[in-house]
Amino acid sequence: MVTTELENGIRALELKAIQKCKRCKEIDALVIVRQESLCSECFDKYVRSKYIKRMESFRVRYAPNDTGVIVPTQTTLLIPLSFGVSSTALLNLISNQLKAQRQRSNGQTGYNCLVIHVDESCVDPSVPPQESISAVQERFSDIGTFRVVNIEDIYDFRNVAREVELDHGVDEEKGGSDTFDKKEVLMHLLSSLPSTTSRMDILSILRTRLIVEIAKKEGCAAVLWGDSTTRLAQKTLAETAKGRGFSIPWQTADGDSPFGIEFRYPVRDLLKNELVNYVSIPLPTSPKPLLPLCVAYSPDAKHTAANAASGRNITIDELMIQYFDGIETQYPSIVANVVSTAGKLKPLRRPAGINISCKICGLPGDGAGGDITLSALTLNAVTELNAESSMCYGCARAMHGAGAYDWPLEP
Question: Per CATH, is 72-350 categorized as 3.40.50.620?
């Protein structure tokens, strides 16, 4: 009987899996990482080393207090939790780092965490329910505070609510953000958008900006995103395809963001399939696998190859996710090169005193979408009839053709 190519590939993996670890040379290999067979202990060290390299600046520090006594200082970091493999793995890595800091520094840590899960069930009933956070909180009770917020809570912030109140004719002294139905306003906004890609794009923007608003309100020093190498590559090509390529340095690089708070990507050097292995197998620092906590993760592709090829019922973001998920195992260097190339891009510098921000995504504008041609309509940046004039190109494309809507945020 002729052995199929797939069977040959499975057999090759099985043979590699029973080899000795390429690093310690003593223990049987358990996983294959970028063509290298590793045991669980060496794989654990590999993942932790990638993470620690990105978190060196959050070690325990000491500074004088008001009386001049040297005391440890501590900052607060916000971690968005999606219940996917990346954000769950990040929590475990953070927990291990904090334990190590306590052991070395007499119980002191360099930071504490505020873990936020954004509940989007009003938009998509299939997303993980709020109750899912209980198991995660129990597992990582030592890292900080856990909180669930609703996506429609974006309307609770003062600069947000005031704009909607004005649009609805609500008197500031007689009413507030509670005088309108937040869910209703949000659903009206999303339903006014012209395509599934636009809705997914705008929902992602709202999620990011809600997390930023919470981080600033709580005095957090930075937001730690759980984006892997694969996710950053997906974002790079997706944002470029959507006409928001100018924003790539802001959306993929460690450091200050245009929102006035730092963005960090501690697992940016790890592929998604490596993080899937990390949460799936017992490890020295995580004897009990984390996969049961990853309730938002599914190994099955959301769309078929035929849908991806034809573009039917699939958004740009989903297409990029499917593409990179398909090549990362066999061609990890391609995924890493996309992120490396993106890292060489520099943010657009504007003359001093000029600060143009897109009113939708809030990022420094690319010259505004008002000077571009959308479909057969040329948008003029100086005409008051076109709301797209204050948007970047990508957001102008996403919002073009939308009906009347209330945008909840200001640049």
Answer: yes
pLDDT in tens, 306-351: 555 555 678 889 989 989 998 998 899 999 999 999 988 887 665 4
Cα Rg of the chain, angstroms: 23
Q: What span, in angstroms and rounded, lies between the C-alpha atoms of 73 and 64? A: 9
pLDDT of residue 70 exceeding 70: yes
Q: What pLDDT sits at residue 376?
A: 34
Q: Where are the extended beta strands (E) located within 97-206?
A: 111-119, 144-150
Q: Taking the mean position of all CA atoms in its chain, how far away is CA 95?
A: 19
Provide the 10 A C-beta neighbour count for residue 108.
15
Residues in the chain: 411
Q: Are 58 and 100 in contact (CB under 8 A)?
A: no
pTM of the model: 0.84
Q: Per-domain residue ranges for the chain? A: 72-350
Crossing angle of helices 182-191 and 196-217, in 10° steps, is: 140
> Bridge partners of 180?
none
**Eight-state DSSP code of residue 146:** E
